[in-house]
Amino acid sequence: MERRSFIKAATAVGVTAATGTGLGQSASAAKPSSAATRPESPDMIYRELGRTGERVSAIGLGGFHIGKQPDAKESIHLIRQAIDRGITFMDNCWDYNGGISEVRMGQALRDGYRNKVFLMTKMDGRTKEAYNKQLEESLGRLQTDVIDLVQFHEIIRMEDPDRVFAPGGALEAAVAAKQAGKIRYIGFTGHKDPAVHLRMFETAEKHGFHFDTVQMPVNVMDAHFRSFTKEVIPVALKQGTGVLAMKTFGDNHILRSKTIEPIEALHYGLTQPVSVVITGIDSPTVLDQAIQAAKTFKPLTQTQIASLLDRTREAASEGKFELFKTTSQFDGTAANPKWLG
User: Under CATH, what is the fold of the domain 43-340?
Assistant: First the structure.
């Protein structure tokens, strides 16, 4: 595939092989010999990704929304517009739009665009076999030899950490893929309950493993109900794990509460101690909105944050606008139970 020599040179990773029953922190925490350098725009904010040594855009392009356009050319153009305007963090997932999101992103990243971005995708598979199958499919769709970051998708059930870390589980496949140079960093995501995230961290610690990244809901309503911001972010920061924020708008449900405007919501997310705020961008207008949020961003004061939280407190009760926490509507893995082991 194109750019094989560049990618291998830019992403060489020294990884210590797993020993004994534990995988060892070095299985994931080792820095690459040379972090990739990417073009940056004065209109964008850039931040360190945990302790990986990588520098990425503080706004990330959500992968689900770039597979929804009727015409693939529209998706490809939108992705390239985002990159040209300074967004370097690309989000995706094996199951988004039946694989269409990865296919379109792979097409968009041709013609020199691949070396301008930090590419992330996610795997549903909980077993070694399922993870490997999905990884090979994602590599093909994305038209690359190596994916910068692969995350275990939707760790939303209390038993998910046990599945991932079990003998023959997905973590074995991820570590092997990293040793083989197919992926560079390992993380996990989830949107249901902070207790599950904390259990994933605890399980990793028990096995001597360190996650490079963790993805979670961070928005103006999260602070009031099952708060990832309050419960999980402090743990991630203590461990040097890069925090990826999502569900800023809750697929627009939070905006429909009429308690907050889009730019305010993005500024709130950017004010939190996160590396990236991943947001769905499905049109040039929404892209303009994301760029404007970055250009006008100044960290909110404690008074401003308190005002926003006061404004959203009543609407946030019982998670009625955070449907990803309270319903199965956003649970993509529920549609693919065979991959859960």
Answer: TIM Barrel (3.20.20)
